[in-house]
């Protein structure tokens, strides 16, 4: 689509403000100038990118050791992978409600990684992920995860009904 807009000269500058909001996308602007004698010339094209949105495509607990996707790990240093659009230039993570943040490391295009550097105690956590793109758009996403590094000690108990002396097949519960 091509649109021609007439501008007026003001104090040595030309100003253009779109009349309505442009949708996200790439636009090419070219300026045509014409003097009083009818001579015309064109500027070099200028590409303008409108970017008002960002999304976090996925947050994965890489060392999920329970049922796949249950966000439970037996590793006290959880490893996270965040998938975002390729124009994201910062990914931060927090497990304390945003009071402190750590920076994820960019990997392959659109993938950012972080391995918690200190041991986390067993328990439930909420991970907050914040991503910022080159245009300055910011978005957050949270996931709940659990660290469980302790195995309960099993207890063997002889059923009192079978505790009558000698039993051929005792019931163990």
TrEMBL record:
Ranges in coiled-coil conformation: none
One Pfam family linked to the record: Big_13
Cleaved signal peptide residues: none
Ranges where the Bacterial Ig-like domain occurs: 9-52, 60-149
Protein's recorded name: Large repetitive protein
Protein species of origin: Salmonella enterica subsp. enterica serovar Senftenberg str. A4-543
Taxonomic placement: Bacteria, Pseudomonadati, Pseudomonadota, Gammaproteobacteria, Enterobacterales
């Amino acid at each position: 689509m091509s649109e021609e807009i007439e501008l007026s000269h003001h104090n040595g500058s030309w100003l253009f403000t779109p009349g309505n909001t442009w949708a996200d996308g790439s636009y090419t602007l070219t300026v045509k100038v014409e003097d009083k004698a009818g001579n015309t010339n064109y500027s070099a094209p200028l590409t303008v990118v409108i970017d008002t949105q960002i999304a976090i495509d996925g947050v994965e607990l890489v060392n999920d050791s329970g049922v796949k996707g249950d966000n439970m790990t037996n590793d006290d240093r959880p490893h996270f992978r965040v998938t975002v659009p390729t124009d994201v230039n910062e990914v931060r993570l927090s497990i304390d409600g945003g009071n402190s943040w750590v920076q994820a490391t960019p990997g392959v295009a659109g993938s950012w990684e972080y391995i918690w550097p200190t041991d986390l105690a067993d328990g439930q956590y909420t991970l907050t992920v914040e991503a910022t793109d080159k245009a300055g758009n910011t978005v957050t996403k949270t996931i709940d995860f659990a660290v469980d590094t302790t195995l309960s000690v099993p207890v063997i108990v002889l059923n009192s009904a079978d505790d009558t002396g000698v039993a051929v097949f005792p019931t163990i519960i």
